[in-house]
Amino acid sequence: MSFWELVLCGVVALIVLGPERLPGAIRSTSKFINGIRQFGQEMKAELGDELRVHELHQKLKDAEEKGLLNLTAEEISALTELRQAAADVNQPYGPAATTTPHPTPVPSAPAVETTALTGSTAKPNEQNQDKPGVA
């Protein structure tokens, strides 16, 4: 709209509503327009988040199909982002959450087997030499 069209709309509104009701009508109209803008921004952000989740999910599928070997840089960054998101989900909300550092990954311990008969534990590639008959 041009300047003169806005002036004409203002004059018509002043004549129709009168000077007492015009300020309230302007406030109501501006609140309505701001509400529509805010709704549009929220929808845009939500759609962007959903598209990002879909993209990360697809890259995770591609990485799993490769057996998590020979991954591209995009797949590695997607896996890193997903791990970070999982760690963030486990963090509590509140002031303490902002000062708590993210947990560092702990290297996994060697696999240990438990035999059902003796209740003893042994590493998978070791043999119990002191107990005959137990492999």
From TrEMBL:
It is found in: Membrane. InterPro entries: TatA/B/E (IPR003369), TatB (IPR018448). Keywords: Cell membrane, Membrane, Protein transport, Translocation, Transmembrane, Transmembrane helix, Transport. Gene3D superfamilies: 1.20.5.3310. Its main location: membrane. It is a single-pass membrane protein. Residues 115-127 have a biased composition (Polar residues). Residues 87-135 are annotated as: Disordered. It comes from the Bacteria. One of its GO terms (biological process) is protein transport by the Tat complex. GO terms for molecular function: protein transmembrane transporter activity. One of its GO terms (cellular component) is membrane. PANTHER family: SEC-INDEPENDENT PROTEIN TRANSLOCASE PROTEIN TATA, CHLOROPLASTIC. This is Twin-arginine translocase subunit TatB. It comes from Rheinheimera riviphila. The lineage of its organism: Bacteria, Pseudomonadati, Pseudomonadota, Gammaproteobacteria, Chromatiales.
